[in-house]
Design goal:
Number of strands: 0
Number of helices: 5
Strand content: under 5%
Shape: globular
Helix content: over 70%
Radius of gyration: 16 Å
Number of domains: 1
Order of helices and strands: HHHHH
Length: 132
Amino acid sequence: MPEFSVAPAWTALFIGLFALFAGIGEWRKPGHWHKLIGEIVASPALQMVTGLVELFLGAVVYLANPWASPDWLSSLMSVVGGLMCIEALMVLAFSDVYMAFWLRRFGPLSRLWCGASIVIGAGLITVGALHF
């Protein structure tokens, strides 16, 4: 049987790396996230692929991190995986409304969102690294 005791640490580390570097990319070139969401809104194929990829990754995160665990990080990562699955279903069923909502938020608040992404990413990396 595989060893899953460090799954929460690895999950936090990799999600943190993604959030940190996505935030840095948006900070360096503001408007990329807005353009990305605009492209998803314009393409039913990208909506389907986005929903499928996020549903798959959310399910992996959820299943690799037991909810009923004495490890608080495992419970937190399970919640993150569950939220990813819910968001993926929203993208699949209500992409026109859901993505339009985010499209309006990323224009004027781009720096706020990428700053939040950088802070959350750095926090998850720290928590994940300390959890090994």
